[in-house]
């Protein structure tokens, strides 16, 4: 009975993944628009001296020139402000704002984004993380074309995730893999499916009128996973949203070592489940059953010389690897690390449990020398 369940779910995930790949491929083409509204590129930055220069440069080389760039320094303790200031002195389109004090009740990034909006003049708002780089000189033109032609209220892009260290290569591909097997991306656009809502924080493009209608970052001022929250609110308020393929448009290296990866994942994971222990544990049970149990049964079949168990488990494991290869190949991950998939799943479960445990024990997370409290709504 359990093998029927596992097989059925694996086939479902495979079909959904293939459907998502075709959807993303179809949406990769775009037509440049005749209209060129002012776009406000808002870059919140805290202790980003290693990234802020490259981020700004990637915006400056865009073919789309009707831009203003607002860099909001969130009380950085390094040279972020000084580096951004040098760019602002050379290009009049860059406005630099420094936040010296974080108001009570706000999280740093959310307040920086909201401050940037308050100083923005564009009819389109693009929130771009400081560690994100635009890969092409047509990146903004592509995004704006999609926003306008599809009549979106919010557009987010799945980036090319750069990985260099061993643990990054093992684990980070799990992010895009999760999107491809869990979210029917086509239904994100459908206003009827309000519970299907997701966005990727490094790149959020809003129609300004809609951003103001939903309250912007003010409504999520204390939300750690603000991107998902904004996507959900956007759908609930009648907005049309989309999460499209951005692997040729933007790139980002989230973390540089295991410690950063662990802390960053712990900070964010529980929020994806709306801080619901029930949602988290049900999801982990399903994940373990479908994507870990076949590997355990495969080893058990080999050790006990149980050919029937080995044969069934081998077939299940083959489908699992097919699903992973399709996702990793599409998003430019190193296919040599596909073999480590069981390790990445175990890490994902471990980080998720730690995320829930810290939420219960500490009522929040520490990130970039700040404490981020959780506001439980359930």
Mean pLDDT: 93
Domains (count) = 2
Q: Name the strands of the widest sheet in spatial order.
A: 3-2-1-4-7-6-8-5
Distance between the termini: 34 Å
The fourth-level CATH homologous superfamily of the largest domain is Spore Coat Polysaccharide Biosynthesis Protein SpsA, Chain A
Oligomer: single chain
Work out the helix count: 15
CATH architecture of the largest domain: Alpha-Beta Complex
Task: Determine the fraction of residues in helical runs and give it as a percent range.
Answer: 40-55%
Any low-confidence stretches, pLDDT <50, length ≥5?
none
User: What is the radius of gyration?
Assistant: 21 Å
Percentage of residues in DSSP E strands: 15-25%
In terms of structural class, how would the helical and strand content be classed? alpha/beta
Order of helices and strands: HEHEHEHEEHEHHHEHHEHHHHHEE
Number of strands: 10
Largest sheet: 8 strands, mixed
CATH class wording of the largest domain: Alpha Beta
**Gross morphology:** globular
The third-level CATH topology of the largest domain is: Spore Coat Polysaccharide Biosynthesis Protein SpsA, Chain A
Q: How would you explain this protein's 3D organization?
A:
The protein has 378 residues and is α/β, with parallel strands linked by helices. The protein has two domains: 2-19 and 269-371; 29-256, Alpha-Beta Complex (Spore Coat Polysaccharide Biosynthesis Protein SpsA, Chain A), CATH 3.90.550. The chain has 15 helices and ten strands. The protein has helices spanning 2-26, 52-60, 80-90, 108-118, 139-149, 166-171, 173-182, 185-188, 208-214, 226-236, 258-272, 277-291, 293-303, 307-330, 341-362, and strands at residues 39-45, 67-74, 94-99, 124-128, 132-134, 154-161, 203-207, 241-252, 364-367, 370-373. Strands 3-2-1-4-7-6-8-5 form an eight-stranded mixed β-sheet, sandwiched between helices. Strands 9-10 form a two-stranded antiparallel ribbon. α3 (80-90) links the parallel β2 (67-74) and β3 (94-99). The radius of gyration is 21 Å and the shape is globular. The mean pLDDT is 93.
């Amino acid at each position: 009975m359990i093998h029927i369940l596992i097989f059925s779910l694996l086939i479902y995930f495979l079909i959904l993944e293939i459907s998502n790949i075709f959807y993303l491929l179809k949406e990769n083409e775009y037509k440049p628009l005749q209209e060129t509204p002012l776009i406000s590129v808002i870059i919140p930055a805290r202790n980003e001296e290693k990234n802020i220069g490259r981020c700004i440069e990637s915006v400056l080389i865009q073919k789309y020139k009707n831009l203003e760039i607002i860099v909001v320094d969130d009380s950085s303790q390094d040279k972020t402000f000084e580096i951004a200031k040098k760019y602002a002195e050379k290009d009049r389109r860059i406005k630099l704002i420094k936040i010296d004090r974080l108001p009570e009740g706000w999280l740093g990034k959310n307040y920086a984004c909201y401050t940037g909006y308050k100083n923005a003049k564009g009819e389109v708002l693009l929130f771009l993380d400081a560690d994100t780089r635009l890969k092409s000189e047509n990146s903004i033109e592509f995004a704006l074309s999609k926003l306008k032609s599809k009549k979106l209220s919010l557009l987010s892009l799945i980036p090319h995730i750069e990985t260099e260290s061993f643990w990054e290569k093992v684990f980070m591909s799990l992010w895009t893999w999760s999107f491809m097997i869990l979210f029917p991306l086509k239904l994100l656009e459908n206003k009827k499916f309000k519970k299907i809502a997701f966005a990727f924080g490094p790149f959020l493009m809003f129609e300004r009128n809609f951003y103001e209608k939903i309250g912007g970052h003010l409504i999520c001022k204390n939300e750690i996973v603000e991107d998902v929250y904004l996507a959900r609110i956007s759908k609930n308020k009648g907005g049309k949203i989309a999460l499209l393929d951005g692997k040729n448009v933007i790139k980002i290296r989230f973390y540089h070592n295991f410690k950063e990866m662990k802390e960053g994942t712990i900070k964010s994971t529980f929020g994806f489940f709306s801080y619901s222990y029930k949602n988290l544990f049900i999801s982990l049970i399903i994940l373990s059953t479908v994507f870990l149990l076949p590997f355990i049964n495969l080893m058990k079949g080999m050790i006990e010389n149980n050919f029937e168990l080995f044969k069934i488990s081998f077939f299940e494991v083959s489908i699992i690897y097919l699903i992973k290869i399709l996702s990793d190949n599409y998003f430019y991950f190193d296919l040599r690390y596909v073999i480590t998939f069981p390790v990445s799943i175990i890490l994902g479960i471990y980080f998720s449990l730690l995320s829930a445990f810290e939420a219960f024990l500490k009522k929040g997370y520490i990130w970039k020398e700040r404490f981020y409290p959780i506001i439980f709504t359930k």
